[in-house]
């Protein structure tokens, strides 16, 4: 009887050991696949994003027309060509933290090669409060999305 019990224990331990090895291998494979996908995304896109600058100005010399008071320069100092950008503006009164700009997504499909830029005038988004002159607000970029050419 003790031989049967010992044989059962050995078989049970063997099955348990192989189940652990199989689960560990699957988890390891999943981690390798995840790391590969993350690494590919970082290498092809994420590492280039910090090299794209958005410079916002409301200087009347840049944009004379009050219908288009915001001058935006998109500078590409990355190694990849920009195909499209989407962004939103943030408007704050000087020395205040509340964003007055209601969310409005802007999009621009100018092709911007590496180490070049593009500038243009944009309309101000709708504001949550009445402002006499939108040029007196501090304008920055809120969210942004950059599409690079393959």
Layout of helices and strands:
Elements lengths: L1 H45 L5 E6 L12 E7 L5 E11 L13 E3 L7 E7 L15 E11 L2
Antiparallel strand pairs: 1-2, 2-5, 3-4, 3-6
Question: In a few lines, what is going on in this structure?
Answer:
This protein has 150 residues and is of the alpha+beta class.
What can you see in these coordinates?
The chain has 150 residues and is an alpha+beta fold. The chain is built from one helix and six strands. It has one helix at residues 2-46; strands at 52-57, 70-76, 82-92, 106-108, 116-122, 138-148. The strands form two sheets. It has a three-stranded antiparallel β-sheet, with no helix packed on it. The protein has a three-stranded antiparallel β-sheet with strand order 4-3-6, with no helix packed on it. The chain is elongated and about 95 Å long. It starts with a helix and ends with a strand. The model has no long low-confidence stretch (mean pLDDT 94).
Rg, nearest Å: 28 Å
Overall average pLDDT: 94
Shape: elongated
The low-pLDDT segments are none
Strand content: 25-35%
Q: Strands of the largest sheet, in order across it?
A: 1-2-5
How helix-rich are the residues, as a percent range?
25-40%
The main sheet comes to: 3 strands, antiparallel
DSSP strand tally: 6
- What structural class results from the helix and strand content? alpha+beta
The first-to-last residue Cα distance is: 70 Å
Would you list the SSEs in sequence order as H and E? HEEEEEE
């Amino acid at each position: 009887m003790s031989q049967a019990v010992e044989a059962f224990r050995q078989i049970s331990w063997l099955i348990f050991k192989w189940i652990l090895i199989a689960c560990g291998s699957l988890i390891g494979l999943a981690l390798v696949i995840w790391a590969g996908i993350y690494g590919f995304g970082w290498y092809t896109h994420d590492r280039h994003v910090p090299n794209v600058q958005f410079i916002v100005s409301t200087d009347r010399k840049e944009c004379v027309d009050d219908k288009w008071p915001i001058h935006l320069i998109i500078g590409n100092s990355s190694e990849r060509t920009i195909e499209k950008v989407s962004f939103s503006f943030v408007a704050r009164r000087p020395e205040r933290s509340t964003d007055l700009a209601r969310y409005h997504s802007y999009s621009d499909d100018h092709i911007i090669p590496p180490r070049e830029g593009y500038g243009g005038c944009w309309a101000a988004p709708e504001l949550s409060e009445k402002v006499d002159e939108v040029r007196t607000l501090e304008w920055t970029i809120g969210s942004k999305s950059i599409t690079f050419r393959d």
